[in-house]
Design a protein that fits this description.
A hairpin with a 2-residue loop joins strand 2 and strand 3. This protein has two domains: 98 residues, 2-Layer Sandwich (Phosphorylase Kinase, domain 1); 202 residues, Aminoglycoside 3'-phosphotransferase, Chain: A, domain 2. It is an alpha+beta fold. The protein has a five-stranded antiparallel β-sheet, with helices on both faces. A two-stranded antiparallel sheet has the order 2-3. It has a two-stranded antiparallel ribbon with strand order 8-11.
Length: 319
Amino acid sequence: MDKQSLLQLFKTVVGLTDFKEDKKTKGWMPKLGPNDYRSVIRHGWLKNERAMIKVSPYENLAQIAGDFKRYQKAQKPGMVKVPEILRSGKVRGGEFLIQQSALAGERIQPNYPLSTTEQKEEVAKLYWSTINNFPKYDFGEWAVSDYFLARLDKWFGLGRENGAVKNGFITQDEKDQAMELIFSNMRLLRVEAFFDHFANSDIVKTNGQYLIWEAKIVPKPEAAGIALWLWGATLYAYNLPVQKWLAELEGWTKTFIKYAPAAKQKDLRLKIKINFLERLLGSLLVDLPFKRSPFQDSSANEIKQAKHLLREVLHSQLG
């Protein structure tokens, strides 16, 4: 939806819910393309309670709210927490979701993307506590092959559209090698429910709890959450020496494996790699060429640095 129409939809929801926007705190509008926005997200208050609102013409926010409530009922100490749902609903042209806010919280990694051993262990323990107790969701006839086919078909199509190979973001051989590794090993994975985002920028740590923002519950292959964490950090590591970052990724991988339950350690490194490759392909084929988040304001030199690092990380996973 174009920016003006989406902001008008947001204004309609604000009038309906009496949400009070905090003009001093910056919100954001995720983009799908030139003047095409997926949603508008703002901080504010609902009945004197600190809150965050999301309005979208594309997302099924009512269903997302229902999934969150089911997760909250199954939630145990040590798991990622979903902020309380204050209100959700539909209006003509879109849907909205209002949740409790936690602006006073902090990130797990203050020196992101670099981390200490203790921070790695903290995240690994949080991940395994969450995934081991995640409630079951019925995603219908959704196989691992459906997941990778849908996502890679999208990335490859958009990559051809923007000339990712011609413009030096990736080579045909790199694409072929990554695809071969993914599809020859994906039978090792099973589908499970998890959040569609899981990175330092998605989680707020406050009062001993970890709250996740802007992340709906979706079908994911095993270990996808780990790959999301590695990928999220890699996007912000473009100005670091390649070997230093590869060592950091190896430290993360070993830590996630170390704290995995014994029953889930078999082939875990390979499972992480398969998911990580999909994320790297998405960035090299789409995120960088289209300058999508977090590259929307990046300079030409920063894009060049990110491309170099992402390709070197891709090669490390193909080896």
